[in-house]
Amino acid sequence: GHYVMHHLIKSVIGVIVMTLIGLYAASRLFxxxxxxxxxxxxxxxxxxIASLPVxxxxxxxxxFAVSPVENAVSRHAEHEADAFALKMTHDPxxxxxxxxxxxxxxxxxxxxxxxxxFFLYGHxxxxxxxxxxxxxxxx
Length: 139
Prior knowledge:
Low-confidence stretches: none
Largest sheet: none
Number of helices: 5
Order of helices and strands: HHHHH
Shape: elongated
C-alpha cells in the first residue's frame, strides 16, 4: 500500500520541506535568543562556540513541537496502507488475527492514552487497527 500510494516519495518531500522550514525557523530563533539573552549567557555572537547549547536547545524544542504533526501524518499513511491491504485481500479476518497475535509481541500498549499516542505513536494503535478491520468485516 505504501508503494502504490507513493507514501515514500511524499514522506521524503515532506521531510525536505520541513527541514528547510525548520532550519530557517531555528536560524531566526537562534539569532533572537543570542541577541536577547546572549549577554547573560556570556555569548557575544551566534558564531561563538559557547552558543552551541542554545542552538541545540532550539533544535530540541522545534523537534518536540513538530513531532505530533509528523506522527499524525504517519498514522494517516499507515491507515491508508491498511485500507489498501483490505481492498486487495478482502480478508479483514486475517488482519484481525494478525493484530491480535502481534499486539502482545510488539510490547506496545494496545490502547494507550490519547496524549501518549499524540506525541509518540507514528502508527495507529493495535486497537484502532483491530476496530478498523472489525468494522470493515461487519459491512
